[in-house]
Amino acid sequence: MYNSKITGLGYYVPDNVVTNDALSELMDTDDEWIQERTGIKERRHVVRGEDTTTTMGVKAAKIAIERAGINKDDIDFIVFATLSPDYYFPGPGVLVQRDLGLKTVGAVDIRNQCSGFVYAVSLADQYIKSGMYKNILVIGSELHSGGLDMTTRGRGVSVIFGDGAGAAILSREEDNSKGILSTHLHSEGQHAEELSLIAPGMGKRWVTDIIEDNDPDDESYFPYMNGQFVFKNAVVRFSEVIMEGLGANNLKPEDIDLLVPHQANLRISQFIQRKFRLGDDQVYNNIMKYGNTTAASIPIALTEAWEEGKVKEGDLVVLAAFGSGFTWGSVIIRW
Ligand code: UT7
């Protein structure tokens, strides 16, 4: 049995900054409401035609590969997490294989929304632990802006989400006391529709229904979120899954050097920080700048934290996420 360790990190966000004031010109919202409820000051939106979920992922991946000090031909497998793929099918993993010019390695797409990166890391970790692969490219990338309802009707969701991508290289680590110590994953499909995008699908709203109805009031192809219900579940599940990960490794909250939570809402991060009595330097937040980038949020935040020198060798780093599904999970890393 091997461990896996993160040997390279990278992120990419589009240059186009969208402030809260800019959104208030499109819908009935304001900077004060958004900052007070979410902590978000601005987010990035792609300029249409300049970037896609895949191209952002590829840009982040190139940085991660270079920092890992490997050649692209050393990559044995691709795991791509997103809820906003370029195409309905095929998924973006194969587009990365093509656009990076990789060998014909396997590529898998993860559909776990805000928990996508944690699920992707967990999957990659198992392949490395088993000895099957040595270097795996893990990407989380999202292009939300092309699918949001930018009218007052959609304001409860549209002000929160932003575009961007993060990537990590997971490589074989022979020292079992280092690297990814454990991952912990959960789901509760009972609440699937509480944070969802129903159409297009092959369930309630077929593509043919949408074309035939051509109904401008059809909201089923915009994301829906029961905000307060999601918030209440998030704070409970985040706490549980962090404790589960720490407990599995005989660790306690005070052992955490850096917690990188999925950037869902600054108020959720602050609640967890208080609950675990962590200092400001023990929890990394950047939702203020990028909004919620779902599967991309943890790798973007982890990369920024690493660039700022906040992740050092020997540190205990904890990743945790909760989101649509509901799904949630944690990753415990000895850096
Ligand atoms: O990443 C996956 C996990 N996601 C989460 O964990 C998100 C969890 N939920 C949240 O972060 C919060 O619930 C939100 C930020 C989404 C919403 O905050 P809230 O404090 O729960 O607000 P609310 O939905 O209860 O809405 C309060 C009021 C409503 O008006 P009335 O009914 O009180 O008159 C909304 O219509 O705020 C109104 N509202 C807005 N007002 C200005 C909703 N969105 C906006 C807006 N600007 N953008």
Commentary on this structure:
This protein is of the alpha/beta class. The protein has two domains: 173 residues, 3-Layer(aba) Sandwich (Peroxisomal Thiolase, Chain A, domain 1), CATH 3.40.47; 155 residues, Peroxisomal Thiolase, Chain A, domain 1, CATH 3.40.47.10. 33% of the residues lie in helices and 23% in strands. It is built from eleven helices and 13 strands. It has a five-stranded mixed sheet with strand order 1-7-6-4-5, with helices on both faces. The protein has a four-stranded mixed sheet with strand order 8-13-12-11, with helices on both faces. Strands 2-3 form a two-stranded antiparallel ribbon. Strand 4, helix 4 and strand 5 form a beta-alpha-beta unit. Helix 3 crosses helix 4 and helix 8 crosses helix 9. The longest helix has 22 residues. The mean pLDDT is 97. The structure holds oxa(dethia)-CoA. The site of oxa(dethia)-CoA has 21 residues, from helix 2, helix 6, helix 8 and strand 12.
